[in-house]
Design goal:
CATH superfamily: Amino acid/polyamine transporter I
Number of strands: 2
Distance between the termini: 47 Å
CATH class: Mainly Alpha
Strand order of the largest sheet: 1-2
Oligomer: single chain
CATH architecture: Up-down Bundle
Structural class: mainly alpha
Order of helices and strands: HHHHHEEHHHHHHHHHHH
Number of domains: 1
Shape: globular
Helix content: 55-70%
Length: 472
């Protein structure tokens, strides 16, 4: 799928080309959602130019689009795009918020995500008086069409920051899972009180070396099987984590935890933990930046209606799954709930199942790590240097800040409001021509401001937690 296409009557400005070069193969988070995976037939057109000066109707008449998706494929793509390593921190998030506020917080984030994706779905088709409606096949393209070049640049920076941050989180999570497999085997052989300690750094370096090699494979992230493997791996380790939590609750014959969650030394410390928990939940949920790409795979002419139905179903399924994972994890360990359900060693046995779950995490994240560089660049020395430096930088930062929950909280809070709420709301205003100070305008601006406050406190709490973890 072309990342940039004709908007209205003419080609994009030169700056849009630069953004397209930076982002054509990078706008995909957590579950490495790719247009080739969504639409395998697009592989027949990989030699098409980056910019194509034709509108949507021209593309269809030339047979360049193969949009045959249904509500079921859309649901599958959404769940694949949402469900990732963030689910492993939900038990810890609930432990910070307690039974009174934890589960409702997950439901609230689900509601925000649903509102956001509903109004964003309406921005898929851009009305045009002469050529008929144009399709906005990506988030960045929609921002450019509705909000202009300045907003496009800001959005591009945020998307690239999100990608870079996710790769740092992937490095931390993968190294932690590698270490967890060794510790699990050690505890099984030597007993649960054995001093099984392994450093994170060596496994981060190993992961970085693997990524340097993998990043040089042409079109690796455009391979259609990658999305399928990601879906299977993420579903596998999430289900294992849920099952182990449920089994622990049954064995304990009690539901642990408290109304207010983990106690803290002071009210300020408790508030910071609550804010950090909100940041972790924010990381686990949104999928707005891939929604338009999913919608662009659906059969016309009812793409918007189908997408809204798919979003409702997918968010409901994901929310139920998240509530189960988080609640069973918290109920099993209470105030001692580990930051990562599979690596904090609340579970020792069956050790082979813990190993399998962590192996699934590793396979998922090795394929999920992505680089913001277009594969059409044929200058191999440049590609080698750029991608190597990129991997080295993310690995280095992960080694400096190897704190899973705090990093997830910072990333979730930092990207939640602008990408999930602000841009969709502002585009919706333009698309529906909503006048300032009308009832709908006031309602959506209030909604946006409320989400901004949540993002702000989540970022403050997670950043404070990251700094304190580094200093301790």
């Amino acid at each position: 799928m072309q990342f940039l296409k004709q908007s209205s009557g003419g080609c994009f400005h030169y700056k849009s080309l630069v953004i397209g070069l930076l982002f054509q193969n990078s706008i995909s988070t957590r579950l490495h959602f790719q247009s080739q995976a969504l639409n395998p037939m697009a592989n027949n057109h990989t030699d098409a130019p980056l910019l194509q000066c034709s509108n949507s109707s021209d593309e269809e008449s030339l047979g360049l689009t193969h949009r045959t998706g249904t509500i079921w494929t859309a649901i599958a793509h959404i769940i694949t795009g949402v469900m990732g390593a963030g689910v492993l921190s939900l038990g810890w998030s609930l432990a910070q918020l307690g039974w009174l506020f934890g589960p409702p917080a997950i439901v609230v984030f689900a509601a925000v995500t649903l509102v956001s994706t509903t109004i964003l779905s309406d921005c898929y088709l851009s009305p045009h008086s002469e050529h008929g409606p144009d399709r906005n096949a990506s988030f960045l393209q929609a921002v450019s069409y509705y909000l202009g070049e300045k907003s496009q640049w800001i959005c591009a920076v945020l998307l690239n920051e999100s990608l870079y941050g996710n790769d740092i989180a992937y490095t931390i999570a993968t190294a932690t899972s590698m270490r967890a497999i060794l510790k699990s085997n050690c505890y099984h052989e030597q007993g649960h009180d054995a001093g099984c300690t392994y450093p994170d750094s060596i496994y981060m370096l190993l992961f970085g070396l693997v990524q340097i090699v993998v990043s040089q494979i042409p079109n690796f992230h455009n391979m259609a099987w990658l999305s399928a493997v990601a879906a299977i791996m993420s579903f596998a380790y999430s289900t294992i984590g849920l099952g182990l939590g449920l089994a622990n609750v049954i064995v304990n014959e009690e539901i642990k935890g408290s109304i207010g969650g983990v106690p803290a030394a002071s009210a300020v410390d408790k508030l910071m933990l609550v804010f950090q928990g909100l940041g972790d939940i924010a990381f686990a949920y949104p999928y707005s930046i891939i929604l338009l790409e999913v919608q662009d795979t659906l059969k016309p002419p009812s793409e918007t209606k189908t997408m809204k139905k798919a979003s409702r179903s997918a968010v409901l399924i994901t929310t139920v799954f998240y509530l189960c994972c988080g609640s069973f994890g918290y109920a099993a360990f209470g105030n001692n709930t580990p930051g990562n359900l599979l690596t904090g060693f609340g579970f020792y046995e069956p050790y082979w199942l813990v190993d399998l779950a962590n192996a699934c995490v590793i396979l998922h994240l090795v394929g999920g790590y992505q680089l913001p560089l277009v594969t059409t660049f044929q200058l191999n020395p440049f590609r080698l240097c750029f991608r190597t430096l990129y991997v080295v930088s993310t690995t280095g930062i992960a080694m400096l800040f190897p704190f899973f929950n705090q990093v997830l909280g910072v990333l979730g809070a930092l990207n939640f409001w602008p990408l999930v709420v602000y841009f969709p709301v502002e585009m919706y205003f333009v698309q529906r021509k909503i006048l300032p100070w009308s009832r709908k305008w006031i309602a959506l601006e209030t909604f946006s401001f409320g989400c901004f406050l949540v993002s702000a406190v989540g970022f403050v709490g997670s950043l404070e937690g990251l700094i304190m973890a580094k200093l301790s």
